[in-house]
Sequence to fold (163 residues):
Amino acid sequence: MENTPLIGIIMGSDSDLGIMQKAMDTCKDFDVPYEVKILSAHRTPDQHAEYAKTAVSRGLKVIIAAAGGAAHLPGVTAASTILPVIGVPIFTKSLNGMDSLLSIVQMPGGIPVATVAIDGAKNAALLAIQIIATGDEKLQKKLVDYKKQIAEESMNKNKKLNG
Ligand code: RP5
Fold:
């Protein structure tokens, strides 16, 4: 049971994988089990619907959904599950990811998607981990340590500046 995925990481295409690797790496750093799938709201709507509808019963706690362009994947996922959905807008060459961002962030009332920055895969994973940590003291401790670590790294930059 321990390795049952808690975070589902889905993305519209394998071309999103380079960015989404950061989400996977962050889950690994915190030892939070995850699963990864290519699922498209447009190209594989039936397979995607099945995934979203069975997510709760399969034990997932949060879904991270990444998509670029007409980025409907996070919103359609949120429409089909009661799990929290975090959307990652993927950078696009034609519109610099603004198309992805606006497609994901402008959800209608009643169907929330927590949207991170364009290509913000690492923050998406951190947010998913923080959500799961609300019911997991061990994970809370890891998050406290992580915050200490990034504060230390930041302060060390001052040491370098001032010699
Ligand atoms: C979206 O279309 C994907 O999320 C990807 O960001 C974008 C382009 O997909 P490919 O044409 O590279 O497969 O569905």
